[in-house]
What does this fold into?
Amino acid sequence: MNRDRKTVLIRLLIIGALLFVSSPSQGQEEPSDCVELGALAYDNWTTADAGGVGVLPTDVLNADYIRCKACHGWDRRGTEGGYVRRTRIETRPNAGAGDADASSRVIETGKVTSDMILHSLTGRSYTDGTASWVPLEPDHSAVNKADHARGYTLGNQHPDFSPQGPNWQKGIPSDLQIGCIVDFLNYEDGDPARYFAKIDPGQDPVLYTIVETADASAGEAFFLASCDGCHTVDFVTDYLKGDGKFSELAHKARWGIPGSTMERRAMGDPTAQDIADLLLFLQQASGTGFALTPGLTGTWWNADRAGEGFLVEFGYSTGALTLFASFYTFDDMGNQAWLVAQPTGGALPESGTDVPVDVFLVTGPMWGDDFDPGDRDLMAWGTGVFSFPGCTSGSVTLTPGAEAIAMGYTELSYGLTRDLLTSGVACPTAD
Ligand code: HEC
Ligand code: HEC
It folds into this structure.
């Protein structure tokens, strides 16, 4: 460890000790100051907040060419995470989508060494970044196509950040920053798996399953205490509609944005639990990043209408997600009645959280030995719409057709909840 790093670390330790004395203990192990610095440096190590000098290195025209997050993603999962579809353009590299180099950009927590980050004599020079970009012309020649592919791949390569390599005189991360990025990437409680039980890049937008321990009402309280002074819920939920944005928000809300007033301290030093709670609250508040999944299977009801309810099963039929719903209820005379529903047109809509359904009333067959499937009379009862914006609450509207109206049925619309959550299928899930 060089002297610079030592003095800064000692200073950080003193600040740490003061904070410890002046703030009540959170009952949870706090990340070290070095981990916090590393988190900001992972975002953009050139900024002063992240321990950088505040200007871009020579020959780097666009910061993204040297920002860790630009190539590894906010969730460190590269194309297996939020950056699965991120485009590669002149001003920024990406996590490898469309690249000739298929090596994984996934960074495994606990396994990172400073040598991996330095890439001494194995990384590219800064000039091989932005400057290597060759646009693909509309009527491209073979040469233009090859140049484009070469520049595309080259700019996506990990830069040489070592004092031995081609970039050291242009400005590289300090020893302190490298050490703290290593600490950050190896900090177990900072692993995105603390917030996301699953990230499914196969869904567009990327589908996030928040860890089971998350609590949406705690997330709302956290938002009110830590974000509300600067943003509205609408602003943040709008932002989350973008592809892969839960990954980015998780990092920024936990660690702050270097060079802005959105500092970790200003948000009350969020814990991993705070972030999981926050993400669940925002996901449920907006339906953003939420999709209909088999994890919604279960018994849905409204406590004010105990005695009737819906058995809803989501599942795959010949590869496509569909649902089958049964409604146990009563007719206008008080007799038990069963209605069944299937998606209009057979399949679920491609996007959104509403499912229009066709509703049928089955009558005819008799009890026991007298049961004859040939007696079955399937009456088209009417239509309906289920809406499932979150894992535990939704709504239903049922609209009878002329025949059902003649039988005494009327339009029905109310909210649903699902209280039994022990199906063993995570929600949302795409498997
Ligand atoms: C322009 C894109 C780009 C940037 C910027 C970038 N990397 Fe990389 N990184 C890669 C690529 C591509 C690989 C995989 C191939 C290789 O090892 O060169 C990689 C590999 C790694 C690995 C090794 C993973 C393994 O298991 O072998 C680590 C760790 C890593 N990068 C961390 C970082 C950190 C930390 C930063 C920021 C200081 C950073 N990277 C910046 C593209 C980038
Ligand atoms: C002290 C004010 C402040 C607080 C507290 C704060 N933010 Fe921010 N936030 C900002 C500023 C300023 C920016 C713009 C920063 C920039 O891009 O340089 C920002 C940006 C954002 C963005 C957009 C990020 C982007 O890249 O476009 C989101 C989303 C966000 N904040 C969410 C939150 C959430 C969630 C919380 C609570 C955990 C929070 N903010 C707390 C000031 C704040």
Observations:
- Residues 294-417 form one domain.
- The longest strand covers residues 320-330.
- Confidence is low (pLDDT under 50) at residues 1-10, 13-27.
- Residues 45, 65-68, 70-72, 93, 103, 105, 107, 112, 116-117, 156-159, 173, 181 surround heme C (ligand 1) (CB under 6 Å).
